[in-house]
Write a structure and sequence with these properties.
It is a single chain. The chain is about 65% helix and about 5% strand. It is mostly helical and about 280 residues long. Residues about 1-15 have low confidence and may be disordered.
Length: about 280
């Protein structure tokens, strides 16, 4: 095994360079300057992304353990809607970056998955997420307005739109590779929530059922594109950095929820405040 492969195989994907400072997997690829094989790049992406994916966040773990109050779940649903609502916009930006009709025909499936198709009677992910919010007792006009979301949530979602808007097509596509880990999160979340929150039903969580098929389909497609397009060490490092940036964006959203609604419980002015006695 090469030195690069050995370093990429380390659990944290990091190489220490000083006190409190470490090279991430993208840094290592740039430092070594060797083109990884498609299999090595795939492993680098999977390992780096999984290490930083938000299933490791305390808020996510509390949700699965049944430790969140209904108020905290409402805050999660309301804030997460900002992200869900931005997904088809993000994908439209990615579509506009490509001159390849075949790519666009395939990528547009993602927009339909979230926006739905009234002519074909297909509900989209956004509508199903609003069902989740409604079942938790949230006013849908309040949710749709997005203005009661935490400021950090709105900034994080804006950062995602900026990332795909201001980057190459390769980086924009690579940023979507968090879908590699989505089935893991859903596979943990759905049975845990059904078992531990008696007011939540399978219908409430209907958003997640199609994602178990859609996310792997989309991740496989994006991964194939990334491993094909990233034909230099620098492009490979850019792809890993894009995935890490997306993981940071998802993590930041849960940081904001934890700070506002768990500990220390400091809700910013203008954000969703639970009714008294809730």
């Amino acid at each position: 095994m090469s030195d690069v492969a050995k370093k990429l195989d380390e659990p944290s994907g990091a190489q220490a360079i000083g006190s409190g400072i470490a090279l991430n997997r993208a840094d290592i690829i740039r430092k070594e300057g060797r083109l990884l094989s498609p299999a090595e790049l795939t492993e680098a992406l999977r390992s780096a992304g999984f290490d930083r994916y938000h299933i490791h966040h305390p808020f996510h773990k509390m949700m699965n353990a049944g430790e969140l109050s209904k108020t905290q779940l409402r805050a999660w649903a309301l804030n997460r809607f900002c992200y869900q609502d931005a997904i088809p916009k993000k994908d439209a930006i990615i579509l506009a970056k490509s001159n390849d009709p075949e790519f666009r025909r395939k990528w547009i499936e993602r927009i339909v998955d979230h926006d739905g198709n009234d002519e074909k009677g297909l509900d989209g992910g956004i509508k199903r997420w609003l069902k989740l919010a409604e079942d938790l007792g949230l006013d849908l006009d309040m949710v749709r307005s997005r203005k009661y979301a935490l400021p950090a949530t709105r900034f994080a979602v804006g950062a995602y739109i900026d990332l795909v808007s201001n980057s190459s097509l390769l980086v924009a596509v690579a940023s979507s590779l968090t879908e590699l880990f989505s089935p893991i999160a859903i596979g943990e979340r759905v049975p845990a929530m059904l078992a531990r929150y008696d007011y939540i039903t399978e219908d409430t969580l209907s958003y997640f059922t199609p994602r178990l098929k859609q996310a792997p389909r989309d991740a496989d497609h994006a991964l194939d594109l990334v491993t094909t397009w990233a034909d230099t060490p620098e492009k490979q490092a850019d792809a890993v950095d894009a995935l890490l940036s997306k993981c940071d964006i998802l993590w930041a959203q849960l940081d904001a929820l934890y700070h506002a609604y768990v500990s220390p419980g400091l809700i910013p002015p203008g954000a969703f405040v639970p009714p008294e006695g809730d």
